[in-house]
Amino acid sequence: MKITEILQNIKKTHFSFELLPPLKGSSINKIYDTIDPLMEFKPPYMNITYHREEVIYKKREAGLLERKTTRKRPGTVAIAAAIKYKYRDLEVVPHLICGGFSKEETENALIDLNFLGIKNILLLRGDPELSSNVFIPEKDGHKNAIGLVKQVDNLNKGIYLDNELENSTPSHFTIGVAGYPEKHIESPNRLSGIHFLKQKVAAGAEFIVTQMFFDNQKYYDFVASCRKEGINIPIIPGIKPIAVQNHLSSLPKTFNIDLPETLVKEIIKCKNNIQVRQLGIEWAIAQSKDLIKNNVPVIHYYTMGKPDNIYKIAKAVF
Questions:
Q1: Could you give phi then psi for residue 219, rounded to 5 degrees?
Q2: pLDDT tens-digit profile of 33-69?
Q3: Do 50 and 96 contact (CB within 8 A), yes or no?
Q4: pTM score of the predicted model
Q5: Which residue range is the domain that position 152 belongs to?
């Protein structure tokens, strides 16, 4: 079922989550062990992140460096297929990114997903390489998510990269994109992010999943700003519980978000990460209950491959 159809039929707030594929060498059972406990809360769908190849530099003789690429996680297409055919009532929403992929490689992935009967995708630009602070697209790749949305929208119309292809079959993807209640780390301000989000919607996006936030008012203000700009598609809030004390510095730096002062003071009081993790659970429960009171269609949780805290949150909320 398409995400848009699921959202249209929702009568109460539903639970969904994002899966981070395990590191290379792990068994598929590690994925199932993450999903199984969360099925208790009847998620209508789940997301699967996509990861570009990582670049490493190895020292050689005479001080020379050898550039090597390595993929540290299994492919999202294969994981999506495995999950789809094990959990029959669970729709999968694989991510596709611009970084590290040409338009042809993107089309090939889309063809595979379409053949598998997967109808929902989330499209993102993706992060720069770890060795760079600047996003550099592939030679024949997309420089931003707007181009990626347009490519998928074209495929939905039967327009492939090979313009001589005859009798092409349209795909049927429902397209999701990311939204940033505070702002994307590269945006000059929050309103400019909404401007580009509006372009993604015009290009074919049908639902939005937000970046994490820890102050619900940031989400409510973001939704209000989007509606004011004529963005009327569903906007699904994304929640990530604080789990370790290091998140005080790493989350604002990595995701360009603010942590509420009350939360910061409580984290500082914690004597160890066990206490921090429990605090993160309690904060996310409070966030979730408030979002449900305000009738959000779905609350989307970022698990980072560790479902125990998400399970406790969902148990208290759903």
A1: -70, -45
A2: 999 999 999 999 999 988 666 555 566 766 666 656 5
A3: yes
A4: 0.90
A5: 3-317
